[in-house]
Write the C-alpha cells for this entry.
Amino acid sequence: MLNMDFTKNPNTTFCGNPGICAECASQGPTCCRCGTSEEELVAPLSGEEWQRMVRLVPWIENGRFVVREHNSHSFIQGIQTLFPGSEHEALNSFPLGGHHLRLAQNNLGQCALLGPSGCLLPETARPYFCQLYPFWFTGETLKVFGDPHCLAIRSLHTADSLCAALGTHPEKLSRIYSRLCLAWGIPPPDRYRVTGD
Ligand code: SF4
Ligand code: SF4
C-alpha cells in the first residue's frame, strides 16, 4: 500500500475517479500495495485518524486492519523527506525507537482494506494519506508522487485532468493535507490551516 517513497520523481509537479482507481485495482498493483519487505515504509496512521475511521466504519474495529510498527531509520527518513523544513517536528512525532500505527497488509503486501474493485472504505473514512494520494504538498505547492504504477498518472498528463479523474480539486486536497499534518504532529502551511475534522 501507500509507500512514502517520494524520491522516485520528487520534481514532478501537476496540480491533481473512483472509476480510474477501480480500473487500476483490476489491473494491480495500485497504490494500496507495497513490496512485502517494504512494510516499514507504509504511511503511518495517527491514533486520532484510526479513531475517526472506526467511528465512521465500526466493522473495522476487530483488530485485523491495523498493526503497530516500529519507527525504523528508513521510515523516519521517509517522513522527513515528505516534510522538508519540518524534519525536527517529524522526528518528535516519530522518534527512533518509538512505534506508530499503520494499516495491516496481507502476505502479498496488499492493504487489508483493499477489495477487488478498490478500497472497501468510503472516501471520507480513509486515512488522510489515502485521501490525498497520489497528491502531496511541499509547503503550499501541490505535487504528485512519481508513481509508475498509478493508472491515473500514466494516463493523464495535465493537472486539471488528473484532479477531475480522481474527483478532487486543489482546495479540497489542501484541507486534507492540513488535517494530515495536524494528525501527524507537523505544522501545516499557514494558508491551509484547519482545525479538527
Ligand atoms: S485504506 Fe483503502 S485507500 Fe488506503 S491503502 Fe487501504 S485499500 Fe488503499
Ligand atoms: S490513485 Fe493511482 S495508483 Fe492509486 S488506485 Fe487510483 S489510479 Fe491506482
The beta strands are 66-70, 99-103, 114-115, 118-119, 135-138, 141-144. The pocket of iron/sulfur cluster (ligand 2) is lined by residues 20-21, 24-25, 30-31, 133-134, 147, 149-152 (CB under 6 Å). The chain has one domain: 18-186.
